[in-house]
Write a structure and sequence with these properties.
The chain has about 120 residues and is mainly α. It has six helices and three strands; from the N terminus they run αααβααββα.
């Protein structure tokens, strides 16, 4: 790739474009929060947990068995997902049964899958 490829040949600011973007782009704090939110999806184990919970709610023991990870590691990942507001749990006897907090989580994953599998 040539060094100047993809760069403007002249320095010319388009005031209307700049103003529109400055008005419409989300605030910096919101963008930082969004970046932090998407970091949660940067771990394969967490994506696998969410994918399993798309099928049905599950307890830690069942999730550990399905994913082939220790219950301790599973609990740690579930805590991260809970803190991010992606999963919730309810007590059933001595077990905690996990499920998706809402359908937005599945929509985010499905949209990502569609994007990476497009040709």
């Amino acid at each position: 790739m040539k060094q100047d490829e993809g760069k403007c040949k002249t320095y010319l600011i388009h005031p209307n474009t700049v103003e529109k973007v400055l008005q419409d782009i989300p605030q910096e704090e919101l963008l930082i929060d969004l970046a932090d939110f998407f970091k949660i999806f940067g771990d394969t184990t967490r994506i696998r947990i969410l994918s399993a919970l798309f099928v049905t709610e599950m307890c830690v023991c069942d999730l550990s068995e399905v994913l082939g990870v220790s219950q301790s590691a599973m609990s740690h990942q579930l805590k991260t997902l809970r803190q991010a507001g992606l999963v919730k749990y309810r007590k059933e006897g001595k077990s905690a049964v996990y499920s998706l907090k809402d359908n937005h989580v599945k929509q985010i994953i499905d949209t990502g899958i569609i994007h990476i599998t497009e040709q």
